[in-house]
Structures are given as C-alpha cells and as structure tokens.
Design goal:
The protein is α+β, with helices and mostly antiparallel strands. The protein has one domain. It is built from 1 helix and 5 strands, in the order E-E-E-E-H-E. A hairpin with a 4-residue loop joins strand 1 and strand 2. It starts with 8 loop residues before the first strand and ends with a strand. The relative contact order is 0.31.
C-alpha cells in the first residue's frame, strides 16, 4: 500500500424545503465547480438530482449523506460532507 492519499472534495448542502407530510426534502448541493438541485422522496427512497451534468459524481454520495443524517437535516441548515473523489 502506497502512502498516496485518495483525492477528496467537500460537498456543501443547503436544505431549502422539508415536508414530513409529503415525505420529501429539497435542497442545493455544491462540490467543486458544480451546483445541483435535489429532491429526495425519503418514503420512496428516490433521489432526483438536476442538472444532469456531473450528476453521476454526486448522486450516490449525496444519497448516503441524506440517509445517514435525515432526522438531523432542517430547512435553512447548511451541511457538508466529504466525497472520496476530485470533482
């Protein structure tokens, strides 16, 4: 094993809307030079990320972050998580 570190990028998440009745969470995520809007229907386990440019880089790590922190996330809150890739 070499001493080389994996690249890392910090993703910044802002929650803009939350509805327990509808079972959804909406927000924005930024990483590198990219910005996306997301809608997470947590009752159905569906995550929609737009625009499509760079979506493959963020969708899986964002989904994991949302699932791990779901009850801690609130509208107006700013959050961050690390992605093990350079974006």
């Amino acid at each position: 094993m070499s001493g080389k570190r994996l690249p890392e990028t910090i993703a910044y998440v802002k929650i803009t809307r939350q509805s327990w009745q509808q079972g959804c969470l909406e927000g924005e995520v930024r990483a590198g030079d990219f910005e996306w809007q997301f809608n997470w229907s947590f009752r159905r386990g569906q995550l929609s990320v737009k625009p499509s440019q760079g979506r493959a880089l963020i969708q899986e790590p964002l989904g994991r972050f949302l699932e791990q922190r779901d009850y801690q996330l609130e509208p107006g809150g700013d959050y961050a998580f690390t992605i093990r890739a350079e974006i």
